[in-house]
């Protein structure tokens, strides 16, 4: 079968199209005919040999762990009724997704609701769960101003929609007119370009009481500084390479509650329920994943390069 190998650690060019033996479903497993693979930013870090937490794999390896497709084979102990079902799932051993077929544990399978496409399901597997977890933790209030960084990204675009649905007034921050137009289309009342040095000046009359910080660095610091006294600062990433780290004393003086990056580690609990919520909301038309670009399997290197250049909007998918 066709796969994409990471031949070593390095730039996108280490991702090369090749062949591998088709997987066989072991006990408690299925084999999925892959129709969509969601690429995560973490996968680009691991490909470079820079792990944000999980151990680095041995090379060569087939990347990818978020897939959607149809069950084509079942292993021992798995009900045959799964065959032919549309599912979204993580892969066995968190790898092997950049392929035509991939194994998955039956307990990880989630049925894709009627009316929802498999690409959309793949886009929601990780970002949908994370967005709902951050949303639940933040206790958004109707009428408050909420600033979402990287608001045109896969996760940020969902946070914009969830905040709007809760009655909040959303400030969407992104880079460049193309992304800002997407954020406006999602319902943000105010959009700001944080590539401009004075971007927080535009928020002087509408200081946010909640910030979703997925960028960190200078942008995260500027967002923290413009937060209204008594607000909440929710950290979920550091796309800039540096986590926003406000001092305890500074946060206390301003009455700011910091929801730190460690909240992500607790979100594994309840992940399955949140993914099901996200899929149901999407099937009902109340939540829409932003899929900005898709690539055929053999162009995984181009997809990684686009993600790392910050040129992408929303989720980036491979379509085997």
Description:
The protein is of the alpha/beta class and 320 residues long. It starts with a strand and ends with a strand. It has nine helices and 15 strands. Strands 3, 4, 5, 6, 7, 14 and 15 form a seven-stranded mixed β-sheet that branches. A six-stranded parallel β-sheet has the order 10-9-8-11-12-13, with helices on both faces. Helix 3 links the parallel strand 8 and strand 9. The mean pLDDT is 96.
Mind sketching the topology for me?
Blueprint: E1 2-6, E2 15-19, E3 29-38, H1 41-47, E4 66-74, E5 86-90, E6 101-105, E7 110-111, H2 118-138, E8 145-148, H3 154-165, E9 169-174, H4 177-185, E10 190-193, E11 210-213, H5 217-226, E12 232-235, H6 248-254, E13 257-259, H7 263-266, H8 271-283, E14 291-296, H9 300-308, E15 315-319
Parallel strand pairs: 8-9, 8-11, 9-10, 11-12, 12-13, 14-15
Antiparallel strand pairs: 1-2, 3-4, 3-6, 3-15, 4-5, 5-7
Give descriptors for this structure.
320 residues; alpha/beta; seven-stranded mixed beta sheet; six-stranded parallel beta sheet; 9 helices; 15 strands; 29% helix
Structural class: alpha/beta
Helices, by number, come to: 9
Helix content: 25-40%
Quaternary organisation of the protein chains: single chain
Order of helices and strands: EEEHEEEEHEHEHEEHEHEHHEHE
Dominant shape: globular
**What is the gyration radius calculated from CA atoms?**
20 Å
What characterizes the major β-sheet? 7 strands, mixed
Strand percentage lies at 15-25%
């Amino acid at each position: 079968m066709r796969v994409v190998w990471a031949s070593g650690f390095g730039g996108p060019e280490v991702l090369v199209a090749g062949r591998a033996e088709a997987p066989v479903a072991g006990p408690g497993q299925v084999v999925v005919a892959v129709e969509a693979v969601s690429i995560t930013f973490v996968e680009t870090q691991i490909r470079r040999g820079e792990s944000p937490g999980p151990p680095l794999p041995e090379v060569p390896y087939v990347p990818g762990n978020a897939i959607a497709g149809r069950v084509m084979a079942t292993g021992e102990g798995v009900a045959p009724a799964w065959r032919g079902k549309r599912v979204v799932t993580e892969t066995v051993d968190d790898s092997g997704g950049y392929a035509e077929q991939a194994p998955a544990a039956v307990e990880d399978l989630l049925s894709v609701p009627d009316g929802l496409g498999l690409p959309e399901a793949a886009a929601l597997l990780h970002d949908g769960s994370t967005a709902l977890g951050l949303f639940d933790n933040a206790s958004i209030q109707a009428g408050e101003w909420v600033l979402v960084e990287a608001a045109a990204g896969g996760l940020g675009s969902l946070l914009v929609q969830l905040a709007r649905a809760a009655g909040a007034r959303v400030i969407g921050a992104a880079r460049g007119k193309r992304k800002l137009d997407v954020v406006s289309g999602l319902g943000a009342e105010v959009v700001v370009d944080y590539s401009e040095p004075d971007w927080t000046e535009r928020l002087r009359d509408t200081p946010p009481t909640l910030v979703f910080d997925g960028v960190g660095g200078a942008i995260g610091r500027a967002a923290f500084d413009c937060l209204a006294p008594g607000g909440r600062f929710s950290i979920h990433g550091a796309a800039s390479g540096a986590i926003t780290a406000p001092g305890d004393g500074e946060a206390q003086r301003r009455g700011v509650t910091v929801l730190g990056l460690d909240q992500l580690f607790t979100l594994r609990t309840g992940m399955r329920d949140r993914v099901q919520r996200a899929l149901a909301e999407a099937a009902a038309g109340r939540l829409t994943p932003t899929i900005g670009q898709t690539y055929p399997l053999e162009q995984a290197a181009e997809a990684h390069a686009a993600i790392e250049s910050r040129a992408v909007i929303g989720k980036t998918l491979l379509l085997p």
